[in-house]
Design brief:
185 residues, Four Helix Bundle (Hemerythrin (Met), subunit A)
Amino acid sequence: MNVPNLLTLLRILLVPVIVIFLIKGAFLKALLLFAVACITDGLDGFLARVLNQKTVLGSYLDPLADKALIVTSYVTLSVLHVIPSWLAVIVISRDLIILLGISVLTIMSISFEIRPSLAGKVTTLIQFLTVCFVLVFKELPDYGNLAVMTTMYWVTALLTIASGFNYIVRGSRLINSDHNTRNRG
């Protein structure tokens, strides 16, 4: 177990605590822990590269930790009517499509490396920022601006959809490439 993997595990352990704070209406505490979780997301990858501590475990745990943090936050905030339910559906659907794609590739015995695309990284960052802004505005309602939040929701939704299509295209290419390779051999 190395430091990057420990940071990823910390992010996973923070997920239920953040949800509990959200349910209790302790938005400032949830925001602080969510921010810590977001920082660990960037820090674990950075440290893995700099310290040359990339591991197979980390390549699986990191995206799962991100998905756990994002999905639980969006579901909880949607149930609490803090964010629009349509946005939660879009965010969760993309992650389910990615997981289904990984399952299909695995079932088809197609070799692949779990590696986020640039579009996926940007989308995750925007999804994290959206939750942070929502929690800030929930804690400090005088500073909230409905037009800004509505724009943030739409930007998050459009980037989420675009990155979802990007992953579908990447998965389709892997399947087609594998099919062509098998037909030649």
